[in-house]
Amino acid sequence: MNVPQALVLMYHQIVPEGSPEGWVPSSLADARYGVSLRNFARQMAFLRENGVDVVSLDDWIGGQVSPGPRSSPRVIVTFDDGYESDWTLAAPVLESFSIPATFFVSTGYLGSTGMMREDQLRRLAENPLFSIGSHGETHRFLTTLPEESCRLELVRSFARIRSLTGQTAVDLSAPGGRINRAIASLARKIGYRAVLTSKPGILCGSGNLVSIPRLPILNAHSPEEFAELLDPRSWAFRMDRLVRMAKQGLRGLAMGLGIRDRIRT
């Protein structure tokens, strides 16, 4: 059976041109995950100019993407944390290329320094290209919380996103990628449609909604490396190497692959 495949790209803050090295918009941000506006625009242009089929997370989960005779995976674009650059920098670029995206927001940070405001979030949600998901309420790692604290973290963020956006479907991106089966099951019981992780991999079909893999995109990725990420032959090699290194218990799983040894979202 021919099953559709997708690479889910994971972005964080987009960095304004002229910013000093190491600039971050807030205390929540990690400078290594900031992608310059110039590089981001180049990457989105690459997707369009090379005929990459970029689909929305909604369409993928809804089963509206057919396998088709494609030699390479589709691409899904996501953002974590909820930085103001989602609205001021990323959204205009995405709109210019008609590229859909899902923005996962830590709702407790809305309106704080460097983060989106409620009105900006609403306007993003009004755009048919975009959807809003949860990144928890306070960005605490869910696996470190007592059960009731974890439940409240998920319930409050879920309710606030639905209230602000009017969306019926809300997906969850686990802060720090920290997730286990019990928490994924809890999220589904609360009403979350799908759970996304920070685990590198290829998304196959739309059936597995509790552990969707993603690829972190860093500013350190050269145009050539970004292109290689979308090459299934190159990706297969990288994944094989990652698995072998993980089995050997090496901490630097992906230092030579442009992926950090401790992937954070």
UniProtKB/TrEMBL annotation:
**Major localization listed first in the record, in broad terms:** secreted
InterPro entries (alphabetical):
Glyco_hydro/deAcase_b/a-brl (IPR011330), NODB_dom (IPR002509), Polysacch_Deacetylase (IPR051398)
Give the SUPFAM superfamilies listed for this entry.
Glycoside hydrolase/deacetylase (SSF88713)
Segments forming domain NodB homology: 73-265
Q: Which GO terms describe its molecular function?
A: hydrolase activity, acting on carbon-nitrogen (but not peptide) bonds; hydrolase activity, acting on glycosyl bonds
Instruction: Read off the PANTHER family from this record.
Output: POLY-BETA-1,6-N-ACETYL-D-GLUCOSAMINE N-DEACETYLASE, PTHR34216
This one is known as: Putative xylanase/chitin deacetylase
